[in-house]
Amino acid sequence: MNKHFAALMGAASMLVAAQAMAETKLTIATVNNGDMIRMQGLTEDFTAKNPDITVEWVTLEENVLRQKVTTDIATKGGQFDVLTIGTYEVPIWAKKGWLMPLDNLGDDYDVDDLLPAIRAGLSQDGKLYAAPFYGESSMVMYRKDLFEKAGITMPDAPTWEFVADAARKITDKDGEVYGICLRGKAGWGENMAFLTATANSFGARWFDENWVPQFDQPEWKNTLDFYVNLMKDAGPPGASSNGFNENLALFNSGKCGMWIDATVAASFVTNPKESMVADKVGFALAPDNGLGKRGNWLWAWSLAVPAGSQKVEAAEKFIAWATGKGYTELVASKEGWANVPPGTRTSLYENPEYQKAAPFAKMTIDSINSADPTKPTVKPVPYTGVQFVAIPEFQGLGTTVGQQFSSALAGQTTVDEALASAQAIATREMTKAGYIK
Q1: Tell me, what's the pLDDT at 219?
Q2: What is the pLDDT of residues 63-117, one digit of tens each?
Q3: Which domains does the chain possess?
Q4: Average pLDDT in the 9-33 region?
Q5: Residue 417's CB: how many other CB atoms inside 10 A?
Q6: pTM of the model
Q7: In sequence order, what are the residues at sequence separation of 6 or more whose Cβ sits closer than 8 angstroms to the Cβ of residue 49?
Q8: What order do you get walking across the sheet with 82-86 strand by strand?
Q9: Residue 83 CA to chain centroid, in angstroms?
């Protein structure tokens, strides 16, 4: 009887074990943007191909996502099996040993098809630690009709001097048309993304080779003077409160002659359902000053696996599905080529169907390819990252400095006062963190 019972129990536990082996549940933390929401709607394609894996989504607003994912990985909480993280986090977390290298994405994944600039930003010591879901740089979006009316021709690769001159010429404040819209809202990923990338093209840098802050140098003074004066002359009222979404709304309602921002915005400003000026938009590279760097950034939302995960194999299968060529074709078949996730693969930009559907394709790829996270500035620096500095302290420091610069744009402080505050704050923080001896 006991032997029979033991045999039954053994069979039952083997059955439970078999069921457990047959089903792996992946918990995926992601950001609540359009491309990620679309991916959730297409998850059945993945589970049909991998019936032994189920997927649970945790979808969060960007700032909340960053906070939760950072806390979970730093405390080894194990709450998530796949993380959605940005180009900022990847090199920092890889260096800390917090991420698994993505070594097994499958024979048909074609890692060499990933755009070199995007791949470099997601790699550490030659290994890929996150796979890009979509990538972006920044570029000039402008109103061709306003330029024509003013008798100006936008070059493919403008200078800042040209952009500033054109912005002032096409401004009609009485008609509520402003020559240029630029980010002013404080935040390391808001105004400082734009201003850091712009400063690179003016020859400025956050830190010298010894991590000494550089806000007291003439290159930063030139950058901030240029920005504040241009926005005063040709920008919209209340610009210090405007981030990506506010400027997108202004541009789409016909109130901006130019907007320099994320390449991912191109599909929105050319969509007649969303934009009043959809048929009047042209594109150009972010401006430069002839010093060898353009004022454009580099970013990717990417998928990664936390170190210590017990579900690496299943997680890599999901990442390979979501960031592989097959997923792009799946989206194209359901939503059309213009709506596929942009900015990650060379093959997409060689695809004639995509080129035909996306008039912004060439300028997007040229912008991404011109950004170099390993050499972001004119002078040498000890950090990587184009519109950010890839050190853990940058989130807090970038936002605090952003508040000083937003205040200068609002006219609450002078440019000189804002730069002096930024220098003092950055010196204090870098000394406290042990970068400056």
Answers
A1: 98
A2: 788 888 888 888 888 899 999 999 999 989 999 999 999 999 998 999 999 998 8
A3: 2-136+299-357 (3.40.190.10), 138-297+392-432 (3.40.190.10)
A4: 66
A5: 13
A6: 0.86
A7: 321
A8: 53-60, 24-31, 82-86, 299-304, 131-136
A9: 15
